[in-house]
Amino acid sequence: MLYFFKRLRLRVIWSWAGLAEVWRNEYSFRSWIWANIASAGLAFVLPLTGGERALILALGILVLAAELFNSAIERVVDDISKQERDLAKQAKDAGSAGVAVAAIAVGVAWVAVLVW
User: Fold this and answer.
1) Is 84 a catalytic residue?
2) Phi, psi (5° rounding) for residue 49?
3) SS3 per residue for 3-65
4) I need a surface site. Which of 7, 52, 77, 96 has the fewest CB within 10 A?
5) How far apart are CA 36 and CA 101, in angstroms?
6) Which of 21, 26, 52, 67 is catalytic?
7) Nearest-angstrom CA–CA distance, 18 and 31
8) Residue 100: what pLDDT?
């Protein structure tokens, strides 16, 4: 059991370090944080059900996770080479598309909650 808690502690430290690094160096991540704060604020001000509110908040967090994955992809690609290569561009574009798809899911959820 002690081993479990030691590893858990290390995972928290590593995760926090990754989050802090992306916060410092990725404008898009900070932008999504602010968008999530605005979205969460609306979710708590509007008369939504608990399920609707949970959906909006969870999908917002999903966008942040997608942005973290995208940042990881960009760093690995840039670490391999700064030279422009077609596959590197495709990898970065796919990561960016993943963030966009997650963001669209939030928009769809907002429309569904507000319209239906």
Assistant:
1) no
2) -75, 165
3) HHHHHHHHHHHHHHHHHHHHHHHCHHHHHHHHHHHHHHHHHHHCCCCHHHHHHHHHHHHHHHH
4) 7
5) 16
6) 67
7) 17
8) 98
Place of tokens 């574009």: 93
Nearest-angstrom CA–CA distance, 92 and 104: 18
Cβ neighbours of 96 (radius 10 Å):
16
Q: Is 20's pLDDT higher than 90? A: yes
Residue in 16, 5, 3, 66 with CA at minimum distance from that of residue 36: 66
pTM here? 0.91
For residue 59, the tally of other CB atoms under 10 A from its CB is 20
Q: What is the arithmetic mean of pLDDT over 83-92?
A: 94
Closest CA to 114 of 14, 13, 39: 39
The amino acid occupying position 86 is D
Rounded CA gap, 87 and 80, in Å? 12
Average pLDDT rounded to a whole number, residues 44-73: 97
